[in-house]
Amino acid sequence: MQDAPLLIVEDQDRLYSRKDAARYLTALGLETAPQTLARKFHEGTGPLCTHVADRAMYRKTHLDEYFAAQVSAPRRSLHESKRPSS
Predict the structure, then answer these.
(1) pTM of this structure
(2) Position 86 pLDDT exceeds 70
(3) CB half-sphere exposure, 83, CA atoms < 13 A
(4) Rounded Cα gap, residues 66 and 74, in angstroms
């Protein structure tokens, strides 16, 4: 019997379960529940998601991109624009 090849996963390619993805985003400062990720997946507004044997999985890269998109630009008051003008 031949051994399966060793799969080396780069940190950015690591896959997180929905529960672990929610924990990761919460640790970054974006309080998120697994149910929120499920709802956002169905709405098409959450981080990119892949499925492994019908189980939702999230790449660290995609979670980081999603988090960055939720962060506003620095501003001095509420009256300033949240996003920099292009």
Answers:
(1) 0.76
(2) no
(3) 5
(4) 18
